Amino acid sequence: GYMYREKIEEGSGMLFIFADEAPRNFWMKNTLASLDILYLNNQKEVVSIVQNMEPCKVTQCPSYASREPAMYALEFPAGYVKAHGVTVGDKVYLP
Predict the structure, then answer these.
(1) 0.85 exceeded by the pTM?
(2) Which of 42, 61, 64, 85 fits 27 for a cystine, CB–CB 3.0-4.6 Å?
(3) Distance between CA atoms of 18 and 72, rounded to whole angstroms?
(4) Closest Cα partner for 54 from 69, 37, 40?
(5) Which of 23, 24, 80, 92 minimizes the C-alpha distance to 53?
């Protein structure tokens, strides 16, 4: 993921692809920049959004769970969701 990166370029993102659709959890351990995350189902529809996940500075980092089962997760620099008006139900087109 974006661990140990001090800055994430605007317009960049990281895609995580899982073999099946299931509840997903991400955390911010060793992540230095705030992030937004989109959780997508197998139809590539946004099923859950977490905005402005802050870097974890404690031993026990919080976990950010999807509200629905997800097959994909997309991480972006914090502010992406708001700037682009992304909402649950939106369809994401992946190559």
Answers:
(1) yes
(2) 61
(3) 6
(4) 37
(5) 80
